[in-house]
Structure of Dephospho-CoA kinase:
Amino acid sequence: MYLIGLTGGIASGKSTVARRLVEHGAVHIDADDLARRVVEPGKPAFDAIVAEFGEGVVGHDGRLDRPKLGELVFADDAARTRLNAIVHPAVRELSRKLIERAEAEDPDAVVVYDVPLLVEASVDHPFDLIVVTNAPRRTQVERLVQERGYDPIHAEARVDAQVDNTARLSIADVVIDTDGSMAHTMSQTDALWQRIRQERARA
């Protein structure tokens, strides 16, 4: 198995790169999806969040009211730290199981673990390669406004709430510049796939 850690800031093109790698044959594991799965009603993390933040974070449907929880922790570093202390270990454990399953099903699998908080959550899987998608703050804000409907002030706050790009770039083995055209992003991703194939052929 070959394990890629894919990270980058919000609206930096991670999903585009992940989709392209899947088209080439990679197995995709999405940390955001896992973070939703581990807080489903009945899961230990759900109970722990309700115990920590109160019944007010549970919606009418019995699930977490994610927008309300987000409002609680977005501007409160201490609350966000408490939430992360519940969610991150649960995600880490589930991702470990899924990576092991992918390897059991295909020992030659290339697994892309798409994890926005790779730096912040101190994700420590034994990655063979860490890939960082990189776009300037201006581009990230524009994408959030144009593609996701954020108002500009909220978009800037979301970008600024994340770890500085410098911290991500310092751990990167490969940086994919996503500030240009879609074709430019795709060609860099295709080159990355060729590099991985060549490395594995030599191994």
About this structure: Residues 176 and 188 are 6 Å apart (CA to CA). The longest strand covers residues 2-8. The domain at 32-107 is CATH 3.40.50.300 (Rossmann fold). The first helix runs from residue 14 to 24.
